[in-house]
């Protein structure tokens, strides 16, 4: 059974169109049709139902697709690992990150690039817990800096530091004039919070639950920048990591600290345990940990 033909089959199964699949694979449609017919001959069963309007998987095609996907995924992973084995000081480092690390991560990257000047660095946002797990397991990222606590046997998480969550209010809001605030005073205010699946949301809701009050959730967001924009328009108030505000100049927004040990979150650096990382990539992981060890 030809691996290339399996790739062709999966592409047709996902596109449900020979013309679209051929275009994506950069081959001619007759060549693709021939490859699928050869595969059908090998498995001794038709893989697609064909009519003038559309195609669909047969029962045999559905089984082959289900069994083929993990195989092709492992082959892709193997290809990436074999490539990285040879990249001792070259290649690409892909870092997943949360928004609040922008105040310190560039410094670490600058020092790293001085030691590994030929390495390319790619930065992508990976925010929710499931996205962190999927990104590592699919080899989309080498390392992720996250506030999600990942309790998975195949993922290593190292705690870096704690950061406070602070309250943001528009300067015209009556609460902005108060010297001290409590969570209970926020109960009836229009509240801006991260969507489900984000650790920050869970942390904030636990604080409200501890104080035996419920937030009046008005807006759900994925990025702190969006929350900042809503507060800037005096549409609500929010709790976000204090580090996100470093070097921010927001004259219309007032930042308030609420006395509570619960208004903290932990930031971790994570990686897949059994994935091979080249010495250059592993050096970045160790450099991040060392950066915060020096600050202790």
Question: Can you give a write-up of this model?
Answer:
- Strands 3, 4, 5, 6, 7, 8, 9, 10 and 11 form a 9-stranded mixed sheet that branches. Strands 1-2 form a two-stranded antiparallel sheet.
- It has 296 residues and is an alpha/beta fold.
- The model has no long low-confidence stretch (mean pLDDT 89).
- It folds into 3 domains: 3-85, Winged helix-like DNA-binding domain superfamily/Winged helix DNA-binding domain (Arc Repressor Mutant, subunit A), CATH 1.10.10; 92-158 and 269-293, D-Maltodextrin-Binding Protein, domain 2; 161-265, D-Maltodextrin-Binding Protein, domain 2.
- The termini are far apart.
- Strand 7, helix 7 (199-210) and strand 8 form a beta-alpha-beta unit.
- The chain contains 9 helices and 11 strands.
- Helix 1 crosses helix 4, helix 2 crosses helix 3 (29-43) and helix 5 packs across helix 9 (279-293).
- The longest helix is centred in the first third of the chain and has 27 residues, at 59-85.
- It is globular, with a radius of gyration of 25 Å.
Which runs of at least 5 residues are low in confidence (pLDDT < 50)?
none
The CATH topology name of the largest domain reads D-Maltodextrin-Binding Protein, domain 2
Integer average pLDDT: 89
Q: How large is the share of residues in beta strands?
A: 15-25%
Based on CA atoms alone, the radius of gyration comes out at 25 Å
Q: Mind telling me the CATH superfamily name of the largest domain?
A: Periplasmic binding protein-like II
The helix-and-strand class reads: alpha/beta
